[in-house]
Amino acid sequence: MPLATLPRLPASIWWWFLLNALLLLLPPVHWLVNDHRAPVLGLPPTLFYFLALSVSIAASVVAAYVAEYGEAGRG
C-alpha cells in the first residue's frame, strides 16, 4: 500500500499500533511474564498478558476506525 493512500490517523494511534506489534512479537516480554508465578487478577500471568494485549489490539483498531470514519462522517 503506497504511503499516499494510508489513512491520516493521529500519531498516538500509530504509536499504539507500534507498541502492540512490539509487545506481540517480542518473545522476551512473554518470557519475563512467564517467570512470574503469582496470579494476576486470578489468571495465570501468561494468559493475562495475552488477554490484555488482545484487548489493547482490538481497542486500537476500533480507535483507528472511529478516528478515520468519525471525521469523514462529520463532513
Topology (elements, then pairings):
Blueprint: H1 11-25, H2 27-34, H3 45-74
Helix pairs in contact: 1-3
How many beta-strand elements?
0
Low-confidence stretches: none
Rg over alpha carbons: 16 Å
Portion in strands = under 5%
Query: What is the makeup of the main sheet?
Result: none
Distance between the amino and carboxyl termini: 25 Å
Explain what you see.
The chain is mainly alpha-helical. It is 71% helix and 0% strand. The chain has 3 helices and no strands. The longest helix is centred in the C-terminal third of the chain and has 30 residues.
Offer a few descriptive terms:
75 residues; mainly alpha; 3 helices; 71% helix; elongated
What's the short story on this structure?
Helices cover 71% and strands 0% of the residues. It is an all-alpha fold and 75 residues long.
